Amino acid sequence: MSDGNVFFGGVPTEPDVRKLVDRFGTPEPGIIAHEDVEAVLGHGRLTSRYRTVVWVWRRRLFRQSNIDMIAEPGVGFRVLTSGERVDVCVRDLGQTVTKLRRGGRRHASIPSTPSI
To answer: pLDDT (tens digit, 9 = 90+) per residue, 42-96?
Structure first.
């Protein structure tokens, strides 16, 4: 009989995340190259496993150590300083305002009478 747990056949990320934590610890501001992360994980940066493990690792660093990172395309990951975190937040808020305006215009352009 089944014990009620559903298993979809995924591979746990914890062992790989632990490897990254052991290798990089609490990273200081600066760049962590893709090559360094690939060497620790043994997976290429274009694989879904790499993306999944790095996503979990970054999320854990943010939640547990308040360390924020952004992706540097083609380079790796930048561990942000306080000032860089402010800049990223301002950029994100600006993008959010733009999306809200765009959504508001779309909503306002909906005809009040059904076309069908």
So the answer is: 999 999 999 999 999 999 999 999 999 999 999 999 999 999 999 999 999 999 9
Rounded Cα distance between 68 and 71, Å, is 10
Number of H helices, E strands in the chain: 4, 3
Give which of 80, 79, 75, 81 is closest to 36, Cα–Cα.
75
pLDDT band with cut points at 50, 70 and 90 for residue 2: low
Instruction: Please list, in sequence order, all residues whose beta carbon lies within 8 angstroms of the beta carbon of residue 108, skipping any fewer than 6 positions away.
Output: none
| pTM to 2 decimal places | 0.79
Whole-angstrom Cα distance, residue 57 to residue 15?
A: 11
* Contacting residues for 26 by C-beta, under 8 A, at least 6 apart: 61, 65, 67
- Hey, what domains does the chain have and what are their CATH numbers? 14-80 (1.10.10)
